[in-house]
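Slide 14.
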Amino acid sequence: MTDTKTTRTATEGTWALPLVVLAPLALVRLLTEPSTLWLALSWILWTVSALLIAAGWTTVLRNGTRGNAAWGMCVLVHAVLAWQLIALVGE
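Slide 15: predicted structure.
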């Protein structure tokens, strides 16, 4: 019998879900002027994305990361998160 230990290292998929949550915010901001209801929903989606990013960092700290592509996705999701925060605070 072989003893295999499965680790859940951070991959591109770790950062994909927060990016998917931020995508509607970016699209609405680029295509239209957000309404008051949309701004309230934007804060909720931004918070959900920030919590998912925190969960991703927990995975990275516990198990490490695999490959440079995962770090590229990490940088991308953090850049979009920062862009959305600046846009939301500026409203």
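Speaker note: The helical segments are 12-31, 36-63, 68-90.
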